[in-house]
Write a structure and sequence with these properties.
mainly alpha, 2% strand, two-stranded antiparallel ribbon, single chain, globular
Length: 198
């Protein structure tokens, strides 16, 4: 697989959220606003990049019997770093995302890429995979959050442009499921059209 394919496959073809359906919990919980989605996506991208790189570096040193616990320790280290940075420099985002930043430790996307890719490939390829999957996750969160923020609050990036309160259901959990399901359906539809053309 070429370097470009490794980097870009997570954007659409193997998008971790919209195709592989991983990381569903934060995808539903933090997408009430685009600011939250971007913050969560960038934090997860940082953790994916760094943990993939370190796990790839250590793959021949970590014994098979403790592979998963070792991966979690590496991931938890970078989650702690990004959590403290966000609390220190962007306290409003830290308060808005709450527990979901520390929960990146158990995000299936991060552990899944460590196990499926970083533990079997070179350091540079693992870094590219982490960047690509992180960008794909950020794209998915941003699409869902854009729809929810516009429909639910009549605003975008916190700037109100539709008068009134918006449609309350899209701010709540049921609205998250509706938008998430419709977005996955749209992605599958586009993929089927592209597949038929090829």
């Amino acid at each position: 697989m070429s370097k470009m394919n490794i980097l870009t496959k997570g954007f659409f073809k193997e998008n971790p959220t919209l195709v592989l359906v991983l990381g569903t919990c934060p995808s539903l919980a933090v997408t009430t606003s685009v600011n939250n989605a971007l913050g969560m996506g960038l934090a997860t991208t940082f953790v994916l990049m760094m943990s993939n790189t370190i796990i790839s570096l250590l793959k021949n040193v970590i014994p098979d019997k403790v592979r998963i616990p070792a991966f979690i320790v590496v991931i938890a280290t970078f989650v702690s770093i990004i959590d403290l940075l966000i609390q220190g420099y962007i306290p409003a985002l830290a308060s808005s995302l709450g527990i979901f930043i520390p929960l990146i430790v158990v995000n299936c996307i991060v552990l899944g890429r460590a196990e499926a890719f970083a533990s079997k490939n070179s350091v540079f390829d693992s870094l590219l995979d982490g960047i690509g999957m992180g960008i794909g996750f950020t794209i998915a969160l941003t699409i869902i959050a854009t729809a929810r923020e516009i429909l639910g609050s009549g605003s975008f990036l916190g700037h109100k442009f539709i008068p009134g309160d918006g449609i309350l259901v899209f701010v709540l959990a049921p609205g998250a499921f509706i938008i998430f399901g419709l977005t996955i359906a749209l992605v599958r539809f586009i993929q089927s059209k592209v597949h038929h053309k090829n």
